Amino acid sequence: MPTIDVVIELTYDECLAHYEGRIANVRTRSVDGRWVIFPAEAIRRIVSRDGVRGIYRLNFSEQGRFISITPLPRR
Questions:
Q1: Fewest C-beta in 10 Å: which of 17, 32, 56, 60?
Q2: Cβ atoms within 10 A of the Cβ of 35, count?
Q3: How far is CA 23 from CA 17, 27, 72, 74, in A?
């Protein structure tokens, strides 16, 4: 299963815009500098009162469809 590690820094208000469907996708950078776009519904699982901040691993199917998101420990 392909994976990519991304840095996500979203405020609670930015997360709310994604959650309400006003923004369909999240666009962020991978730890190696590539731009990554994934479905906004993914952050619903990880949003807190402070938003979403940290490094996360995105898992995709062999066909490139989003499967899951997992927080990685801070280094």
A1: 32
A2: 9
A3: 6, 10, 25, 28
Q: How many CA atoms lie within 13 A of 45 on its CB side?
A: 11
pLDDT tens-digit map of 28-56: 999 999 999 988 888 888 888 889 999 99
HEC sequence for 5-65: EEEEEECHHHHHHHHCCCCCEEEEEECCCCEEEEEHHHHHHCCECCEEEEEEEEEECCCCC
Q: Give the number of other Cβ atoms within 10 Å of residue 57's Cβ.
A: 14
| DSSP tag of 70 | E
Q: Tokens 């619903």 identify what position?
A: 44
1 contact partners, CB below 8 Å, separation of at least 6? 59, 60, 61, 62, 67
